Amino acid sequence: MSTENRKPGKGIWLAPVLLALPILAAMTLIALRFGPLIVKLINAAVKATVVV
Amino acid sequence: MKKVLCWLLAFLLAGTLALFGISFACARAVEPGLKEGGTPVSEGVQRVEMNLVREKIEELAPIYGFSAETAMKVVTEEKLAEMNRQAALWWNGILVNGQAGEAPAFKTDELASAFAADIVSAGGSGEDAELLAADAANAVGESILRIVLPLRLPIVGRGLSEAAARVDLGNIISFLLGVRWAALALCALLAGLIALLESRKLRESLFYIGSAMGAAVLVTAACLVLYALSGVDPLIAGASPSLSAQYGALVNSAAIPLFLYTALLLAGCIVCLVLFRRPHEAKAD
């Protein structure tokens, strides 16, 4: 995306999406890999410490 | 090369802006609990707790043979507020020193004498009535404590003392609260570096900074979606309705600043990208 010599098109609005994509991809991968484990740990902690 | 560096800085800025927003919102939720004496729960939470206390008393009344109205005359909103103040102090001890202080307790003397009168008037004998009234008062006091602080206090206290023997919990909490300011300083540094790299055409830097702001909005929104999908709220609601009300109030106090910050970032992104486009449009005309 050249920003120096030619007039920027509507594509500039896509820049934030492109910039966020790697972070979103990493977050999704981490959530898929560790999400269930984290939820299980929270569940176990809640069951152990909360009085029903 | 300069452009690659700018994109890299913008990428880092996006992550740091999102980190600042999330850590700022979390700190806003936790910080009131660090004040001396802690922060008691809101009126809304107290109303929920009062309803739960009423339900519990109505459940216990036929078992022990006391009148629910008698109990509700003793268990007033002021007494519940006092219990909440004690619970806030208990949390304050954990947040500041990393150690659980004295567990809150509901004074049952007044309840016991009121119940004894109830049981005697229902035909119970004096000594038995006193014993039964004491049991009933203890059961009600225990239920109130479970509603105000629905945790297994000995387990939490033991866990905290074990952890305190290995790490300084108070220090860790103050370090985590400081993360937001470190992130904010890093944001300023990264934005400054982008502006410095594009110092000849300052408006060019608006493109990178605006893009980073927009990306931070998307990342923050994704974090909120992941949190909503994690199912932590229903998990807590299933475990204890009073804890769910307290946790809900805590999440709300974090959510409001986070939404405001996200809106601010979105506005910043739009302004930066529009300002970046404007000189080009003027030249094209």
Enumerate the spans of chain A where pLDDT stays under 50 for 5 or more consecutive residues: none
Could you describe the largest sheet of chain B, including whether it forms a barrel? none
Number of strands of chain A: 0
Helix content range of the residues of chain B, please?
A: over 70%
Basic shape of chain A: rod-shaped
- Number of domains in the coordinates of chain A? 1
Structure annotation, total helices of chain B: 11
Count of discrete alpha- or pi-helical segments spanning 4 or more residues of chain A = 1
Mean pLDDT of chain B: 87
Compute the CA-based radius of gyration of chain B: 27 Å
**Biggest beta sheet summary of chain A:** none
Number of domains of chain B: 2
> What is the N-to-C succession of helices and strands of chain A?
H
Order of helices and strands of chain B: HHHHHHHHHHH
The fraction of residues in strands of chain B falls at: under 5%
Terminal CA distance of chain B reads: 31 Å
State the end-to-end distance of chain A.
58 Å
Rounded to an integer in angstroms, the radius of gyration calculated over CA atoms of chain A is: 21 Å
Helix and strand composition category of chain A: mainly alpha
Oligomeric state of the chains present here? heterodimer
- The averaged pLDDT of chain A comes out at 84
Description of the structure:
- Chain A is mostly helical and 52 residues long.
- Chain A has one domain.
- Chain A contains 1 helix and no strands.
- Chain A has one helix at 15-49.
- The model of chain A has no long low-confidence stretch (mean pLDDT 84).
- The two termini of chain B are 31 Å apart.
- The mean pLDDT of chain B is 87.
- The interface between A and B is large, with 28 and 46 residues.
